[in-house]
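Working notes for the structural subgroup meeting. M.R. asked for a predicted model of this chain before we commit to crystallization trials. I am recording the input and output together here so anyone reviewing the notebook later can reproduce the run.

Input as submitted:
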Amino acid sequence: MVRNFIDDLAGYRVKVEREGKEVVNIPGILALPGLLVAPKMSLVGMIAAPLLGCSVRVENAKKEAEAAKRAEAEKKAQDAADAILDMAKKTVRTIEKEFSKAWESVSADDPEGCPEGKENEDDSTKA
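Returned structure, recorded in token form:
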């Protein structure tokens, strides 16, 4: 139980930022003992930070790393899907071109080359 608590605590960080720049970055494993040893100083620091134009954030680094991995996996999946879609579009265009060429060769002006033309010639000779 203590081991799990320490592992969880190690994933947290206390960050103090001013004007978008990081001023202090303390691992959670060090911040908690500081809070327990000097709670009044910690409270004064938390109150003074906004007055000095700073922001204090507690972040879970493990969750952020997992979120970054998930975002990267989603991007890779989207890239793969886009590549498949592009390949499918190219294949459809190629098939359309080949079908168009084949249709033009079958439906040429030459009635001998067109099965319908043969049927029409045979019908006209019978009448």
